[in-house]
Amino acid sequence: MKHPITVIQINRHMYRQLCISLICFISFSGSLASERQGFQIPRTEIVPIENSATGGLYELYIKLPNTYSDGSEDEYPVIYFTDADWHIELLSAAQEYLLEEVILVGISWQKDMPTRLLEEVGPHVSRFRDYTLLESSNADRQSKYQFGNAGSHLRFIREDVITHVEKHYRANSHNRSYFGYSAGGLFGSYIAIARPDTFKNYLLGSPSLDGDIPYLTELLEKSESSPAKMDANIYITHGSLEKGRQGYIDQYIALLNSIGDETLSVSKVQIEGSHQTAFPMTGVRGVTWLSNLINEALAEQTEVTFRDIAPLKLEFVDASPADLNDSIPVGVLGHDASDRRRIMQIAHEIADQKHARVDSLLIAHKGKLLFESYYLRGRRNMPHPQASATKAYTGLALGRAIQMGYMTMEDLHRPVISFLTDLDKNTLVEGAELVTLHHALTMTSGLRIPEGTLDELEKNPKQLQGQGLIQAYFEHSETITPQSQTFLYQGTDPSMVMHVLETVVPGSAKQFIEQEVLTKLGITTFDWNESVSGLPSAGSGSAMTSRDMLKWGMLVANKGSWQGEQLIPEAYLDIGTNKVIHIEPDDIFFTNSVVTNPGYGYFWWQADLEYDGKRYFSRSAQGGGGQYIILIDELDLMVVTTGHDREMRPLRLTAERILPAFIK
User: Fold this and answer.
1) Residue 429: its pLDDT value, please?
2) How far apart are CA 387 and CA 389, in angstroms?
3) Residue range 38-64, pLDDT digits in tens
4) Distance (Å, rounded) from C-alpha 29 to C-alpha 637?
5) Distance CA 92, CA 428 (A)
6) How far apart are CA 239 and CA 70, in angstroms?
7) CB 657 within 8 A of CB 338
8) Residue 651: closest CA among 624, 620, 623
9) What is the 3-state secondary structure (H, E, C) of 120-147?
10) What's the rounded Cα separation, in Å, for the pair 277 and 295?
């Protein structure tokens, strides 16, 4: 799912801190060396433990979080990792900067192995036995190392290690993670298939899967090893120079995907370097991935709202986005004429909040997601409030109804009130019949309701239920004339569109949107509030993940086609996402010297983005605070942003900084 080169960016503040820490550590270690003292990792203890089945002696390196002894009864997520002697320092440092509120549990190699083997091979000799799945065909090697005892070691971890940790520490049994590299990654690959319920999250670095795929395939086919729901997240990495290993990893991922389990999420990421040099970044990037997952899980458990979510301590920047099997093709930033350096500089600036409070920035080029980044309140799997971008989704849902035959393109020019049979037409304002669906979609209905009137009406919400809301609009508006039907951005017009949708589709508008639009796009994690009328809110009130925003944009860019199925008529999008209404530059907030010639379609905006003397036509769904889906067709480019700052200017950022990276 990845490509020959990947780029991983770390906050330069973090990099500076790590460097300073390393320098201090070296100096400190030097002074200690002269005194012949050992170095200890703070808040870390070594606990002897016996394998109850074999009698083998191991040690657990347990590092507790800073807040563990603060008197609370909170339970903490736990990261278990093999090869403890090799990994404890890296994971401890990454934890301090990226994921403070976890318990680290390192599982050592067996300490009481035969002296001859310890002297000949080293203290790690037991890993050949404990982490491998198959016996060696070489009888002498098999006799010496006892390969193929992963099953026994898994029982030790489940029955002895985890039992001990959860008995003696405030460990959250529902939030366990595993980290393993090389043979440890192979062992984790085995656990994920043999007993996937052992851990919730699996971080498998460069797993040594050579020759083990047939065994794992056979294991998966056994009924006792194929649970109905795996309910796990698996993150697999490999070095860009590990050419031979990539094929085995791809086979393993294909094996996992063959399960067809919606509760299983598999991501593959390429780390620049060889098997050896890719390890440090695998640890840092893996802990970043775990940080996002664990923070999201904690937010779900405590029902944290978007407004209350803690800002990310470190931005997540991915120039080789993971393939999440979510129907979004991925690529690598730096290929296809893109300029990686320019985009990475933008990411640094966003992290330093030089572009207002940005929560996410995603860039797709030529149909592939090449860049994915999250900051502050942004999370990959958490829906972000969409504000007025909800209007664009409402308009696309209407297009879906046309595609399915519940309406025709000619119906766009029918009066809105002709669809709404529950209205009392005798009490409507003069000119109500002039308002067509086309007018509502372009914010040119001509409705002019005196300020404060709707606030007063909402004090008695019962009268606004169902079509009562539209009744109130047409009863309290000033007279509607062709002269009054000019562009005015207001919430009344999208509400009328939602009520028409409710009338024409079978069931309800809510069911229709979920079943015929969101489900078709594979959008399962979302929110969509109800308005006072009881229908889905049309002007604002939805929440989508940034990747799902990308899907909406892909649907429009692909002229209404999704996965080979025409969801929305191309003719509808030709009208609705292009300029129907010309807007004077002074009448809209987003224009400036490089964003000009604004217009409006069916809840979609248009503008020219200028760079180096040339103008590029753009279409965009927009929501206040920075929720944008921007399409530049000439460059086959899409930019998605989320934020929580009225000063965000994504169109200007795209024109001045992003376009240059994709212009040949």
Assistant:
1) 96
2) 6
3) 678 888 999 999 999 999 999 999 999
4) 51
5) 69
6) 41
7) no
8) 620
9) HCCCCCCHHHHCCCCCCCCHHHHHHHCC
10) 29
* Side chain identity at residue 127, one-letter code: R
Q: Which of 330, 321, 249, 334 is nearest to 289 (CA)?
A: 321
Residue 225 is predicted with a pLDDT of 43
In sequence order, the β-bridge partners of residue 436 are 415
Element (H, E) at 179: strand 171-181
CB 110 within 8 A of CB 207: no
Does residue 495 have a pLDDT over 60? Answer: yes
Q: Which residue has the tokens 């729901």?
A: 229
Burial class (CB in 10 A: 0-12, 13-18, 19+), 283: buried
> How far are the Cα atoms of 96, 427, 439, 600, 603 from residue 446, in angstroms, in the given order?
58, 17, 8, 16, 16
Distance between CA 24 and CA 182 in Å, rounded?
A: 30
Residue type, 621: A
Element (H, E) at 403: helix 389-403
Instruction: Tell me if residue 541 falls in helix, strand or coil.
Output: coil
Question: Mean of the pLDDT values across residues 560-587?
Answer: 95
pLDDT confidence of residue 222 = 77
Report which of 632, 622, 626 is spatially closest to residue 659, judged by C-alpha positions.
Answer: 632
Rounded CA-CA distance 532/521 in Å is: 27
- For helices 546-557 and 389-403, angle between their N-to-C axes, nearest 10 degrees: 50
Q: How far apart are CA 219 and CA 392, in angstroms?
A: 48
With beta carbons less than 8 A apart as the criterion, state whether 630 and 650 touch: yes
Structure tokens at 370: 């090449």
- Tell me: pLDDT of 311 over 90: no
Structure tokens given for 629 = 């889906």
For residues 375 and 350, the answer to whether their CB atoms sit within 8 Å is: yes
- Closest CA relative to residue 259, chosen from 214, 297, 223: 223
Relative orientation angle of helices 492-504 and 389-403, to the nearest 10 degrees: 30
Give, for 316, the enclosing helix (H) or strand (E): strand 316-318
Cα-to-chain-centroid distance, residue 49: 39
Closest CA to 188 of 228, 133, 243: 133
Which positions ≥6 away from 637 have C-beta within 8 Å? 363, 364, 365, 631, 658, 659, 662
Least confident segment among 29-38, 230-239, 400-409, 549-558: 29-38
Q: Residue 350's pLDDT is what?
A: 94
Give buried/exposed letters for 377-388 (b at 16+ CB in 10 A, else e). bbbbbbbbbbbb
Structure-block tokens of residue 333: 């930033």
CA–CA separation, 651 and 619 (whole Å): 10
Look up tokens 């030097």; give the residue. Answer: 30
How deeply is 645 buried, as exposed, middle or buried, from its count of CB atoms within 10 A (0-12, 13-18, 19+)?
Answer: middle
Angle subtended at Cα 623 by Cα 617 and Cα 624, rounded to the nearest 5 degrees: 115
Residue 637 CA to residue 366 CA, distance in Å, equals 6
Largest CA distance in the chain: 99
Indicate the residue type of 262.
E
Integer Cα distance of 378 and 195 in angstroms: 32
Put simply, whether the predicted model's pTM sits higher than 0.85 gets the answer no
Report residue 439 as tokens.
Answer: 């007018």
